[in-house]
TrEMBL record:
This is L-lysine exporter family protein LysE/ArgO. Keywords: Cell membrane, Membrane, Transmembrane, Transmembrane helix. It is a multi-pass membrane protein. It is found in: Cell membrane. The chain crosses the membrane at residues 6-26, 33-55, 67-88, 109-126, 146-165, 177-198. GO terms for molecular function: amino acid transmembrane transporter activity. It comes from Reinekea marinisedimentorum. Signal peptide: none annotated. InterPro entries: LeuE-type. It comes from the Bacteria. GO terms for cellular component: plasma membrane. Coiled coil: none annotated.
Length: 201
C-alpha cells in the first residue's frame, strides 16, 4: 500500500507542475470541447509512458538525451502558437462563453485529440517525469507495477477532475470580461512555459 501511495502522490506532484498542459486541458474543458476525450488521451499517454519507463528504463535512458533537444524546440513552437491564439482571443474577444456546448466546439474530436497529443508529447518534461523519474523509482522498488498503478491512477484522477470542473466554471465565464481575463492568463502561462523551455535548449 505504501508503494502504491508513493507512486500516486509523486505522480500528482509531477502532473500538477506541467502548467501548460493543465491550462490548455482546463480551457478546452471550460469550452466543453470534448473534455472527457481529451482527459482520456492524457491519462492514456501518462500511463503508457510510465509503463515504458518501468519495462525498459535502462535502455531508454541511453537514447532519450539525444532526442530531447528536438522535442524541446517543437515544444517551444507549440506553446508559442497556443500563447498567440489565447492572446488574440483576450484582445479581440467581445462575448462571454457560449452556454450551448455544441457551438463552442471549434474543432473536431480528431483535431482535439491530435492537439492534446502534440501538447503532451512535444513537452520534453513529460518524458523526463514519466519515463525517467517514475520509471527509475518504480524499477528500484520491490513492487514496480504497484508503484505504476498508483502513478497511473493519479493521472486518471487529475485529468478527470479537470474535465469535470469545466462545466461549473463555464457559468462563471459567461461574462465577456472574465472570459478575456481567462484567455489573458492562459496566454501568460503558455508564454512563460515556452520561455522556460527555450532557456533549456
Amino acid at each position: 500500500m505504501q508503494t502504491f501511495l508513493t507512486g500516486f502522490f509523486l505522480s500528482i506532484g509531477l502532473i500538477v507542475a506541467i502548467g501548460a498542459q493543465n491550462a490548455w486541458v482546463l480551457g478546452m474543458s471550460i469550452r466543453r470541447c470534448y473534455p472527457w476525450t481529451i482527459a482520456f488521451v492524457c491519462m492514456f499517454i501518462d500511463a503508457t509512458l510510465m509503463a515504458v519507463g518501468v519495462v525498459s528504463f535502462n535502455e531508454i535512458q541511453r537514447w532519450l538525451p539525444a532526442v530531447i533537444p528536438w522535442f524541446t524546440w517543437l515544444g517551444v513552437l507549440m506553446l508559442a502558437w497556443l500563447s498567440v491564439q489565447a492572446g488574440l482571443r483576450a484582445v479581440k474577444g467581445t462575448s462571454g462563453l457560449v452556454a450551448n456546448g455544441s457551438s463552442s466546439k471549434q474543432m473536431t474530436a480528431l483535431q482535439a485529440v491530435l492537439a492534446v497529443m502534440a501538447l503532451s508529447l512535444l513537452n520534453p518534461h513529460v518524458y523526463l517525469d514519466t519515463v525517467i523519474l517514475v520509471g527509475s523509482i518504480a524499477t528500484s522498488s520491490a513492487q514496480p507495477w504497484v508503484f505504476w498503478s498508483g502513478a497511473a491512477l493519479a493521472s486518471a484522477v487529475w485529468f478527470s477532475t479537470l474535465a469535470a470542473i469545466g462545466q461549473p466554471l463555464s457559468h462563471w465565464l459567461k461574462s465577456p470580461v472574465r472570459w478575456r481575463m481567462f484567455d489573458a492568463a492562459l496566454c501568460v502561462v503558455m508564454s512563460w512555459m515556452a520561455f522556460g523551455l527555450w532557456q533549456t535548449v
